[in-house]
Write a structure and sequence with these properties.
By secondary structure, this protein is mostly helical. It has three helices and no strands. Helices cover about 85% and strands about 0% of the residues.
Length: about 100
Amino acid sequence: MKKSLLFTSTILLVVVQFTILYFWIINWEGLYSTFGLLIWGISIIFGILICVLYTSLKNKKGIYIVLKRVQLISTSITILLVIISLIIDFAVKSMP
């Protein structure tokens, strides 16, 4: 049960995080709204939570190692996008 739930939530969260990446490339200012920041924050929190749950599994073989790495990379990319967006926003607002 726990493994199938982790598998499903990992796939859904990776899709959400790559959708965030897509919208960030197309129009990052749309993600910089209240709703976009909320989705960003929730996806990062769930991504970290899922990575922690993967480390608590007793059977760490096969597909679960791959899924943990994919989730870790996807969450890291999402965190990096937030940092880059904050830098861009700071640079734009500091211009005369």
